[in-house]
Specification:
By secondary structure, this protein is an alpha+beta fold. The chain folds into 3 domains: 172 residues, Glutaredoxin; 187 residues, no CATH class; 70 residues, Orthogonal Bundle (Arc Repressor Mutant, subunit A).
Length: 609
């Protein structure tokens, strides 16, 4: 009913209102967040997310317009170019609203709360995520990307509605009812957990595309939490149907356009079900998780090629994302320095012919199927034929064909490095925790000192720079502490520290992981629910009984699982009690959406080990 009421209300066509002097300037010039700094030259008078905005909104009785995005987001760049740099639209925002720009990677709890709001009211989510919030801090209406004419019309209509009857809109926004969560069961139910595992497997098999790989939908995301749990189930019970899903998906992700075959690493997702057309964002969290997934898959499925993919991805992280501090940057932009989507990764045919000899070009073209370019700025290298088949096709000796391909790829890498790709150089606690877990696990499995060295650097940065013995810092950029620390930071950092402790075997390392985990419980567990951030300016900050997996594993489930493992290692009953109290609940809700709760089911199974 609430969603319908909002839809009807905002469909009304009303007249724009006279201008008001805003008296604001764009606060984002030279901001230490690379994403926010991108908006420093917009004609919009962007403000930062803080209490002063809401104080001014109450004083002026204006809605706060909050636009959430991130550095490597394709559609965020499009909406900036089309709308936020349009002077007429900027004038409307400055006149009638308090415009606020938010880097979602600095405010993950706010992003989650607003994403939950847009999904409930609009039925879908994404970025840029634009939410109109009342002066008291209640989300009122949300919109994703809109073309400039539609966006301008929306601003004018909503301004008129607010001026006509702001009291009715405030009452509508305040109508959300906070949930009340029941007490936990006394213990985890083994029968219920077994049923959840079966429900997950059946749902995963039903959603899986066993032709092209992946799960459901038009776009293709890695779904690492689900694949990790499927691997664990396969390791326990080697079902052919589960192996088929795993192998089809892992082969597709590694062999098609999600994987950067030239420069290494993985993109965030592809827009097509065939894994061929990425949006070119490269994120630390994507690559850290996929490196660990392929490392495990290589061992469990006896696939050395998966291990090679893991090694290549770890190498990409070291070569391209690691900083002198030992920590790793957040992301590379989808847009190159010239403003071209994917321009850093794409190759025009004329440029390829100019760079390569005829023989090199023939091998490259056959291997990567350089037919009509799928992208505006050229070809992305997506494997079409293995080199053995290319050799047969071109009547070449296999070894010679492989040598020609290697030489051609090397030449492209040299040329590509001369291009310019913007980097989001924020050093995020949680994402570096994921990287630490990946490198520590690689070091344990391979015994290679190089991986141990990288893990040590990550551990030292997290433990000595972002952790002060009591609390974590969310991020550093240009030497400044930024953002609001979140549940995911504590969960992923504690997970990384636990993996490092298992590498070293030192009691002190296990104790450090436990201190971070316990601080997470104290900061984010509220009664029978979770808050995702420590500070919120929203009036109705949501509590969650549990968190679903997304592109990242559910932070509450990760914290619960590692707390159980740490409690056994250290004999800490408090960590175990915390975890069991959070997990022993909501079995029916998990059953109905088991695919979305893979990390939670893994944690429940850990409780029964």
């Amino acid at each position: 009913m609430l969603r319908l009421a909002r839809t009807v209300l905002f469909a009304a066509a009303l007249l724009p209102l006279p201008a008001l002097a805003a008296g604001l300037v764009n606060q984002l010039q030279s901001h230490p967040s690379p994403y926010l700094a991108l908006h420093g030259e917009d004609p919009v008078a962007w403000q930062t997310w803080d209490q002063a905005v809401f104080a001014r909104a109450r004083e002026k009785n204006r809605l706060v317009f909050v636009s959430v995005g991130y550095f490597s987001c394709h559609w965020c760049h499009v909406m900036q170019r089309e709308s936020y740099r349009d002077r007429e639209i900027a004038a409307l925002l400055n006149r009638d609203y308090l415009p606020v720009k938010v880097d979602r990677e600095l405010q993950p709890a706010l992003d989650s709360a607003l994403m939950n709001f847009v999904q409930q009211t609009q039925g879908r989510g994404g970025w840029p995520l634009n939410v109109f919030i009342t002066p008291e801090g209640y989300p009122l209406y949300a919109v994703l990307y809109r073309p400039p004419a539609q966006f301008q019309q929306l601003l004018e209509k909503l301004t008129a509605l607010w001026r006509e009857d702001s009291g009715r809109l405030v009452a509508l926004a305040r109508a959300e009812i906070a949930p009340d969560f029941a007490d936990s069961a006394e213990s985890v139910d083994p029968g219920a957990v077994a049923m959840l595992g079966e429900a997950f497997e059946q749902m995963a098999l039903g959603l899986a595309d066993t032709v092209q790989g992946g799960f459901g939908g038009q776009s293709r995301f890695p779904h690492v939490p689900q694949l990790e749990y499927l691997l664990e189930r396969y390791q326990r019970h080697a079902e052919a149907s589960v192996r088929e899903v795993l192998v089809t998906t892992l082969d597709a992700m590694a062999g098609r356009g999600l994987h950067d075959h030239l420069g290494g690493g993985f993109f965030r997702y592809t827009v097509d079900p065939g894994w061929e057309q990425p949006h070119f964002e490269k994120m630390l969290y994507t690559n850290a998780q996929l490196a660990r997934l392929y490392l495990r898959a290589g061992r469990i499925l006896s696939r050395p090629d998966y291990t090679a993919v893991a090694r290549s991805t770890l190498g990409f992280l070291v070569e391209r994302m690691r900083t002198g501090s030992g920590a790793m940057v957040a992301a590379f932009s989808a847009v190159d320095a010239a403003g071209r989507e994917g321009g850093y990764y794409l190759w025009a045919e004329a440029a390829l012919r100019e760079l390569l000899s005829d023989e090199h070009y023939q091998v490259l073209s056959a291997t990567w199927a350089l037919g009509p370019a799928a992208f505006e700025h050229g070809h992305l290298l997506v494997e079409a034929l293995p080199i053995g088949e290319v050799a047969t096709l071109l009547e070449l000796e296999p070894g010679w064909a492989a040598e020609l391909l290697a030489e051609a790829m090397a030449q492209l890498r040299v040329t590509q490095r001369k291009r310019s790709l913007p980097v989001d150089d924020k050093l995020l606690a949680g994402w570096n925790g994921l990287a630490l877990a990946a490198f520590a696990e690689a070091a344990r499995e391979t015994g290679e000192s190089g991986y141990t060295e990288v893990a040590q650097g990550l551990r030292d940065y997290l433990a000595e720079v972002l952790w002060n013995g009591r609390v974590l810092v969310r991020a550093l950029a240009a030497g400044a502490a930024l953002g609001t620390v979140s549940l995911e930071d504590y969960a992923y950092v504690a997970e990384g520290l636990l993996a490092f402790a298992e590498l070293t075997g030192r009691d002190a390392d296990f104790e450090l992981a436990a201190r971070v985990a316990q601080a997470g419980w104290e900061a984010f567990r509220v009664g029978n629910g979770w808050r995702l951030g420590t500070v919120s300016l929203l009036a109705n900050t949501p509590l969650y009984e549990m968190v679903a997996d997304s592109s990242l594993p559910a932070a509450d489930a990760v914290l619960s699982r590692i707390s159980l493992r740490l409690s056994r290692q250290l004999g800490d009953p408090v960590l175990a009690a915390n975890a069991l109290g959070a997990l022993a609940r909501a079995y029916p809700a998990v059953t109905t959406a088991a695919f979305s709760y893979a990390s939670r089911i893994r944690a429940l199974e850990t409780a029964l080990d």
